[in-house]
Design goal:
Elements: H1 3-6, E1 9-10, E2 16-20, E3 23-28, E4 31-36, E5 41-46, E6 49-54, H2 59-80, E7 83-90, E8 95-99, E9 102-106, E10 113-115, E11 121-126, E12 130-135, H3 138-151, E13 161-164
Antiparallel strand pairs: 1-6, 2-3, 3-4, 5-6, 7-12, 7-13, 8-9, 9-10, 11-12
């Protein structure tokens, strides 16, 4: 049995969970999330904890056990605390700003790149070079952060581009001069 899947999921005070078969709805101060869990697992609520268990001992159920527990735990954490990904913009003239809800990035192209966030995701910019992507849904926050990074991924020679906070860029030596 999955070690991750065995752990019960604690439910914080301000969060409410409703179960309808494999449909899970979690409501909290940061929003509301819904998800249908895959077949092969069962979910039950014991007081202020949720327990995910495989419905049978076949391989498919065991594979989905840990996944389902992690998905529900991320939903509970998302509506109570939220998720944030921080990106750093490195390069002369590279900067970002927020106009309304849109993120506008100047990253060395002939035009500014505009990104409209999906529902549940917000952009914030600190010091023109730090972009914060935040929201309740971990999957959406991670996908939007990846899309922002894809505007100008960091390059290995000068390290210019958009990178995650704490990401280490492997640097390469440039060309050597004539002898």
């Amino acid at each position: 049995m999955s070690r991750i899947g065995k752990a019960p999921i604690p439910i914080p005070e301000k969060v409410s969970v409703s179960l309808n078969g494999l449909d899970v709805t979690v409501k909290g101060p940061k929003g509301e999330l819904r998800r249908t869990l895959p077949d092969g697992v069962t979910i039950s609520q014991d007081g202020d904890t949720l327990v995910v268990a495989p419905s049978s001992s076949n391989r498919r159920s065991r594979e989905r056990h840990g996944l389902s527990r992690t998905l529900v735990a991320n939903m509970v954490e998302g509506v109570s605390q939220g998720f944030t990904r921080k990106l750093e913009i490195v390069g002369v003239g590279y900067r970002a700003s927020v106009q309304g809800t849109k993120l506008v990035v100047l990253a060395g192209y002939s035009h500014p790149v505009e990104m409209v966030p999906p529902d549940g995701v917000t952009f914030a910019v600190e010091n023109n070079t730090n972009v914060l992507v935040s929201g309740a849904n971990k999957e959406l926050v991670g996908n939007e952060a990846a899309k922002v990074r894809a505007i100008r991924p960091p390059e290995p020679y000068k390290g210019k581009g958009i990178k995650y906070e704490g990401e280490r860029i492997l640097r390469k030596a440039g060309k050597t001069g004539k002898k």
